[in-house]
Amino acid sequence: MRKAPLLMLFSSLLTACGFFQAAKTPMPYLEAQVERQSDTLLIMLPGRKEGMESFPSNGFFATGNELEADIVAVDAHFGYYRERTVVERLHQDIIVPARARGYKRIWLMGVSMGGLGAVLYCDEHPGIIDGLILLAPYPGDSALVREIHEAGGLDQWPNDGKAGEDYERAVWHWFKEATRGSNGPQIVLGYGEEDRFAKASELLAVRLPAERVFTQPGGHNWDVWRALWSDIVAAGLPAQQHAESRPNEESRPAEESSAAVHQP
């Protein structure tokens, strides 16, 4: 993993003391179901101000009960990005054991910063993940987003090998390549129409099938993300097709759950 620039990528986020949580080994996680029920696993990654509890407390586990998938929320808080271990811990502590338990399909869901973490994982471990659900994914520096817009979008933005150790460019180059055909993971995108990252999400949205792009009025908050998640589940996603060919801040509603916490 290209570790040094990952710290630079998030240097602008190192402003709140709450972000300096310790990155535990193994990474803690929270299971929506105590017993395995499906061959599909959906792994949820939180945003930079959140932890794994944000998903059940915002109704994501309850809504996800309608899916034919098991759900795990991981405690991939900012400390793992700061210590540059988020991809390694996600791989070693969550995904490798899930494959060993027999899960045939694995999807990642990332909210805000968690969307970036999901893409970083796919970039480092190609062919492992069957699909991504990205809710208002953090796109990196706004200057790079403007550069891509000014180029006319990802199709016209040159894939000239400049990414190198620049994680922001690497993520957008991954988006460009992953949306060229059918070999990459399925990508589902959701964002608020007034989200501060909406212009970045639009760059990705135009490259995805319309049925995998979801929008809601509103900005960068859980009210919008709850509505998007409900729409995505109602649409029958995560989808199951072609998986067999792959290698092995706001008000929060109360939720009753049989979730189990796993701590190191």
Please describe what this structure looks like:
The chain has one domain: Alpha/Beta hydrolase fold, catalytic domain (Rossmann fold, 3-Layer(aba) Sandwich), CATH 3.40.50.1820. Helices cover about 35% and strands about 15% of the residues. It contains 10 helices and 8 strands. The protein has helices at about 5-10, 55, 60-65, 80, 85-100, 115-125, 140-150, 165-180, 200-205, 220-235; strands spanning about 30, 40-45, 70-75, 105-110, 130-135, 185-190, 215, 260. The chain has an 8-stranded mixed sheet with strand order 7-6-5-4-2-3-1-8, sandwiched between helices. Helix 5 crosses helix 6 and helix 6 packs across helix 8. The longest helix is centred in the middle third of the chain and has 15 residues, at about 85-100.
Give me the secondary-structure topology:
Elements: H1 4-9, E1 29-31, E2 40-45, H2 54-57, H3 60-64, E3 70-74, H4 78-82, H5 86-100, E4 105-111, H6 113-124, E5 131-135, H7 142-151, H8 167-178, E6 186-192, H9 198-205, E7 213-216, H10 222-234, E8 260-262
Parallel strand pairs: 2-3, 2-4, 4-5, 5-6, 6-7
Antiparallel strand pairs: 1-3, 1-8
